[in-house]
Amino acid sequence: MKWVSIWGNAVSINEHRPETYGKNLTLRYPIYCPFDGSKVRINFDNYCGTESVCITKASLCINGAFYHVLFDGQSGCSIAAGQQKTSDEIEVEVKADDDMFISFYMADFTELRSSVVAMGPLSSGIFAVGDMTEILDIPKEVCAKTKNFYFLNNVSILAETETRAIVCYGDSITAQDWPDYLSLMLKGRKTSVIRRATSGSRILREYDNITYESYGLMGKKRFLHEVPTDGADTVIIQQGINDIIHPVGIDVNPFRPMSDLPTAQELIDGLKWYIEQARTMGYKVYVGTLLPIEGWRTYAEFRNDLRNEYNDWIRNTDLIDGVIDFDKAVCNPDNPKAFLPEYDSGDHLHPSAAGYKKMAETAEEVINA
Questions:
Q1: How far apart are CA 122 and CA 358, in angstroms?
Q2: What is the tens place of the pLDDT at every residue in 48-102?
Q3: Residues facing 319 on adjacent strands
Q4: How far apart are CA 221 and CA 202, in angstroms?
Q5: What Å distances lie between residue 140 and 4, 127, 131, 147, 149, CA to CA?
Q6: Are strands 114-117 and 77-79 parallel, antiparallel or unpaired?
Q7: CA-to-CA distance for 305 and 264, rounded, in angstroms?
Q8: CA 137 → CA 30, 134, 141, 150, 165, distances in Å?
Q9: Model's pTM, two decimal places?
Q10: SS3 content of the chain, % helix, strand, coil (to 5)
Q11: What are the angstrom distances between the C-alpha of 86 and each of 135, 148, 161, 338?
Q12: How far apart are the first and last CA of the chain?
């Protein structure tokens, strides 16, 4: 038996707003379970916080039955800024496809900063007023949906040795649907897919202002914090497009100087560092090519040339276990700079639902080849 993560997200920085604090608030997140286990442990992370966070109560619900989540034998815990906390082990039998969710309540004013936005068919959440940690059906009058995942960043179960986890690391494209579709495609194969992705993030840079700080931390602050995952043996990396499309010049945006634009070699060196770190973890490494960008609001030929040079290195390097050619899978064969129309969400940067499904199919074909 071994501990294997069945659910996970990155931890990033929530958009800075006047309503940064919450009080008397319950957060609830469904958990997809891809295989059986005999114990559960839950991790909460305040990596990007500037203040301590106090979780008053937490619960795990499986098929309508509630289980208390304890921390060192206590019903709540305090998590200092920059720190994380793992719950005590919960001895409970878990079966694949069980109806599971985790709820946690914060009674006092809490800085809602450490969070990430994630989307997909398996990624949803709600927040509610009051302590709803042991209420099965929360009244709709006191709750609403949220795409923000606060503090909760990992759920692991004690499972059979042949189970495994795959980590998907990247930016908003990976924070959206394709890892969830990949999870569903791998159903029955005793494999979980763990998303570690933050919208707007770059390999080489990060923003130092409240306008854009929610775009997340640079790779050297993220990768070693996010990628080590219980039971993981593989990482899929797909990142770099924001390094290319963000810089526009201070005459256009004072926070986005053209000096932030990397050379292809600088991007490649950043990716090589990821690969080296993943190898020290004993992981297989797959890298996804960057998607088409023609039509995006900052598109320029020099950006596309940079994307192509980076993609060509990924396709030809012998440093990885395989290339997942997302670019080739979703581009228009008659105009490779752009998406095939049915795979374009409309912003010419992010895929449509069909595009995300195609990405998942492409990844599944490579990692199971």
A1: 17
A2: 999 999 999 999 999 999 999 999 999 999 999 999 999 999 999 999 999 999 9
A3: none
A4: 11
A5: 34, 11, 14, 17, 20
A6: unpaired
A7: 9
A8: 13, 9, 11, 21, 31
A9: 0.97
A10: 25, 35, 40
A11: 23, 20, 22, 44
A12: 27
